[in-house]
Amino acid sequence: MYSVELMVEEHKNILKLLTVIQKACCGILNGQEVDDGDFRKVIEFARNYADKHHHGKEEQILFQEMTDRLGQIGIKLIQQGMLVEHDLGRLHISELEKALDQYKDDPQTAFKLGILTEAMGYVNLLRRHIDKEDQVVYTYAEKNLPPDILESVDQRVKVFEAEADQNQVQEIYLKTLQELEAKYLD
Questions:
Q1: What is the distance between the alpha carbons of residues 177 and 63, in angstroms, rounded to a whole number?
Q2: Tens-place pLDDT, residues 86-130
Q3: Is the pLDDT at 152 greater than 90, yes or no?
Q4: Thinking of the domain 2-184, which architecture would CATH place it in?
Q5: Quick one: which of 184, 98, 138 has its CA closest to 2?
Q6: Where is the Hemerythrin-like domain (predicted)?
């Protein structure tokens, strides 16, 4: 299924970002300065690629079909699982931004701790979340949604992707990811 394959590929990019975040946090623990600019890039990637772009497709298309068509199991899986975790991820990113702002204004250890806490909270949440989606949610959708609905999901995802491509979403954020990987993972 095109849309699931695409979402799994996007997960690989998000996982790379999570590794970058962890390396940046370890660097801080090892005495490096907080690189405000790099953490702002992480926030931008998380909000615009991971959330608006990737979660946008899930929430507006695939998850909507699952809650509409797969009964209580679909509703619980999505509304009480995946959507709650999406919101928790947004909270971690918002709190990370707040901690960065506080640290920039007053570089005290408590604010540095907030940066590390929220950044790693996001990393740990998203790693587990991605594993659940890849291993359970997407598989359940492919096995239980009717073929015509799966085809409709694919078509709507293609339209979503085409619009994102026009706005250069993938190009902009994958370039940012490459820059961060070159700095933190090489």
A1: 26
A2: 999 999 999 999 999 999 999 999 999 999 999 999 999 999 999
A3: yes
A4: Up-down Bundle (1.20)
A5: 138
A6: 4-140
Kindly list the distances between the CA atom of residue 30 and the CA atoms of 20, 24, 177, in Å, as whole numbers in the listed order.
15, 10, 23
Give me the residue spans of the domains in the chain. 2-184
Q: Is the dihedral of CA 146, 147, 148, 153 positive or negative?
A: positive
